[in-house]
Design goal:
OB fold (Dihydrolipoamide Acetyltransferase, E2P), Elongation Factor Tu (Ef-tu), domain 3, 4 domains, conserved putative lor/sdh protein from methanococcus maripaludis s2 fold, alpha+beta, elongated
Amino acid sequence: MQTMALLQRLALTGILTGLLVLAGCKQSTPAGGPAAAKPAPEVGVVTMRTEPVTLTMELSGRISAQMVAEVRPQVGGIIQKRLFTEGSEVKAGEALYQIDPATFQAALASAKAALSKAEANGYSLRLRSDRYKQLVAINAVSRQEYDDAVAALKQAEADIEAGKAAVETARINLAYTRIAAPIAGRIGRSTVTAGALVTANQATALATIQQLDPVYVDVTQSSADLLRLKRNLASGELKNDAPGQAKVKLLLEDNSTYPQTGTFKFSEVTVDQSTGSVTLRAQFPNPNQLLLPGMFVRSLIEEGVRDQVMLVPQRGVSRDPAGNAVALVVGENDTVERRLLKTERAVGDAWLVTEGLKVGERVIVEGLQRVRPGAVVKVVPFGGKAAETGSQPAAKQS
């Protein structure tokens, strides 16, 4: 009996053990059966196409006033008063300083007196000459006396003309005691005050007037870039209908864009031998006088329009250890392929690509960290229709 009970216990223990093993196996098996396959990584792509693009070059330069006039006295004397407010707008011909005119008024009066004396002497000699002319005809006076009278009259007439010139000179010098603005514009600080002694044509200017609307922007460009631009225009690779009227945009020191558009005026005809650069000048309207002479700016000058170019977003292009531009392209069967690119310049946030891609190919711009060449991916458009072009309306030189 004890043997039978022992066997029954052993059998019951085995059954329970089997049930526990089966339960453990069921728990270790996923609900979905065998492990599911890992899904293909998702990447964002842009489809390559060609389009015309307006190319620009970014050059640094500084603002200069259109007209600058340094105010200097043309006669010497003591400044009686200053007639303008520093930093204000002045008109051409407006009085700026007044020099003590007393000595110049006296000089004018003296010149007028000398002229009156010469005119009185001339009147007497003219009567004498006329009288001798009649007397010499009847031999009442000698020919020599008549000739002397005529010569004396001519000398008196010359003295009169000299007297008139002296009066005019004195009048001009008196007028110069009122120092006027030679041009209209904004006047800077005054270097003298009332009571200061000034001299004619002195080296130090009393003040400086500058016309600030419009203003010039002078930038420098390397002669090599200028040759490249002219070559591209001549070959037809770049099109520019009015090179002398190219539009120019301006970036200020705080990276903001100046609201007014400027016009390209001319390029210097001489290359600076020390820098190998050429000076270019553009003109900008400045109604609010936001642009001040000496201010550092960056200008974007239109080079022209290039037809049928291909632009790739910069985020989709990397560099290999050799420095070559590289992009990942989704090829047939959604397989990733590696491409070496030849880029020419930056165009906004894209690269202008001349070799390595074809129209219609899909370049990966998002999810690059999750894929490698040869991998199969799931393709989704990146950023909608606007991102498919990967382009910007204007370009800047890289």
